[in-house]
Design a protein that fits this description.
Blueprint lengths: L1 E2 L2 H11 L3 E5 L3 H14 L3 E6 H7 L1 H12 L5 E9 L2 H10 L3 E4 L6 H17 L3 E6 L19 H11 L3 E4 L16 H10 L4 E3 L7 H9 L2 E6 L1 H17 L6 H23 L6
Helix pairs in contact: 2-4, 2-11, 3-4, 5-6, 6-7, 7-8, 10-11
The chain binds 1,3-dihydroxyacetonephosphate.
Length: 282
Amino acid sequence: MAIVGLNELFADAEARGYAVPAFNVCDLENVQSILNAAEEMKAPVILQAAREEVQYAGGECLVGMIRATARNRGLMLAIHLDHGPSFEFAAKCIRYGFTSVMYDGSRLDVEKNAQETRRIVEMAHAVGVSVEAEIGTIGNTEMGEVVESQYLADPVTAERFAEQTGVDCLAAAFGTAHGLYKGEPKLDFDRLAEIRRRVRVPLVMHGGTGIPPAAVKKGIALGIRKINFSTILRKAFIDEMKDFMGRNPDELMTMTILSAASRAMGASAREMIAMCGANGRA
Ligand code: 13P
């Protein structure tokens, strides 16, 4: 097993032109089903948790669970904080053993976002941890089918932000959103291309659920090296759990129910790994 930093994963992804899938996790079933999929497909993966997920599992428990599950398997993975809310929370996660952190200052004005991101980069780099930041606002599908242009990242601002902060990768909003899209997502690839031209660090795509494979491919060709998936895996898990309970209403073994749901989650993870072109890369 190799638990590595984002930069190591990105170096290979950049050289061979694919994206590393990043899956949100908060419990043992998530961790097992995703790591099983990664092992089967010989794929590098990022296991990530947002604040609520870290708090649900407990940071130490989450990292311990990932390390124990990954032990003695030929895996290549990173443990990442998703949408970190503050300097303090990032520091806590580094202490738990996360190998990279995201700071999401996208709701602040851009100067304040850059200042706070810079402070976190200095602290994290001092202990060999890489940092992702957000520019523009990725938002949720509740904003509507189309993410309005005021939320998208401005390429010139993104370039300045990346230089000022020294971040290792950048989530620059170009039309994706978290959750289930109501229609086909409208992605601004011209904007993404201009961001790619100006920003040297790898780019991150949030809101991977529901992005059609052709758009994922186009994003990868334009420098996306990390794609976040959460809702799609949870939906696969819950759909199967509901189906299973419909078929077996008297089942009382939680292990049996959770195993069925985990298999569905694993199948979804395998699909996302293949879509990112990450299979066979670890
Ligand atoms: P989805 O839930 O839309 O897949 O987004 C995940 C994500 O971007 C986590 O940061």
